[in-house]
Write a structure and sequence with these properties.
Layout lengths: L12 H32 L31 H37 L1 H15 L3 H9 L6 H11 L2 H15 L2 H8 L4 H37 L11 H7 L1 H5 L4 H28 L10
Helix pairs in contact: 1-2, 1-11, 2-3, 2-5, 2-6, 2-8, 2-11, 4-5, 6-8, 7-8, 8-9, 8-11, 9-11
């Protein structure tokens, strides 16, 4: 009778699995709360978020105003929700724009190879040498303040990492047996790229797009904080944090705290969900918070 050897489980495996499950559930709950706030608060609370009431300025959190009021008496809960709507719009659209550009550039470089690959990657290196925020400020400064200039700015400055990821994935797929079989069967480069390479890089590109959403939210908030994003009268989380600096120095903490939380919470929620997605498409790598 063959001897049966028992191998004990690696220490911490069960705990790591529980931690990943807890992180996934927490991230999903936070994201659900963010989406419900964005979708339900504006129709359920039909109050003008821009309405000024100087008699109620800088009131602390209460039942009438759960997040308090700002320096001109506007309800902070409504302002934060409307600012979050703008940030999510900018984040999602800009991330999709950057992902499309980066996927196209990276797939082109990886599929063609040779001098095309070298030339494209030198362009990527050139753009990478300039800080994203500095380049974004330059792009936004050419337009009037608004949502679309910010989206264009983020989209045109954040495709570089996606291009590198997609190129590396395409180069890896080019050496696979099924690609060699397609080439041997007479398939053109275009057919191989569309039918075999592109489907293989879409999961990575999708993950890059999800991870880019919180980065775009922070980018929009930074531009608005500097006065280069949305107009000053619009509800923007960056503008709200900037406007609350004097209140914070006077001891009024709520005009700074709640807009800051509305920036941080979606970031953590998206990063947690993206980490679970990365575990699924690449179980060999442990999830990390990628911002």
């Amino acid at each position: 009778m063959a001897e049966v050897t028992w191998h004990p489980a690696r220490p911490g495996t069960g705990r790591d699995r529980s931690n990943r499950t807890l992180r996934l559930v927490t991230s999903a709950v936070l994201m659900a709360a963010v989406l419900l706030a964005v979708l339900l608060v504006p129709p359920l609370v039909p109050v003008d978020a821009q309405a000024v009431d100087l008699a109620a300025k800088l009131q602390p959190p209460s039942l009438a105003h759960p997040f308090g009021t700002d320096e001109v008496g506007r309800d902070l809960l409504l302002r934060c929700v409307y600012g979050l709507r703008v940030s999510l719009l900018v984040g999602v659209v800009a991330a999709l724009t950057a992902t499309v550009i980066g996927t196209a550039v990276g797939a082109l470089a990886g599929a063609l190879g040779g001098w095309t690959d070298r030339a494209v990657m030198r362009v990527v290196d050139l753009f990478s040498s300039v800080p994203h925020l500095l380049l974004g400020i330059f792009i936004v400064a050419m337009f009037r303040p608004g949502v679309w200039p910010v989206i264009i700015s983020v989209g045109l400055t954040h495709w570089l990492s996606t291009a590198r990821i997609v190129r590396a994935e395409v180069l890896s797929l080019r050496g696979r047996p099924f690609v060699d079989a397609a080439v041997s069967g007479g398939a053109s480069r275009w057919r191989v790229a569309v039918r075999h390479l592109l489907p293989g890089v879409l999961p990575r590109a999708g993950l890059a797009a999800v991870l880019m959403v919180p980065h775009a939210i922070w980018h929009e908030s930074a531009l608005s904080f500097l006065g280069l994003g949305l107009p000053a009268h619009e509800a923007s989380l960056g503008i709200m944090v900037n406007s609350a600096r004097s209140s914070l120095l006077a001891g009024d903490w709520w005009p700074t705290l709640f807009p800051g939380l509305f920036i941080i919470v979606p970031t953590l929620a998206v990063a947690g969900l993206a980490g679970a997605w990365r575990d699924r498409i690449d179980p060999r790598r442990r999830s990390e918070l990628m911002l």
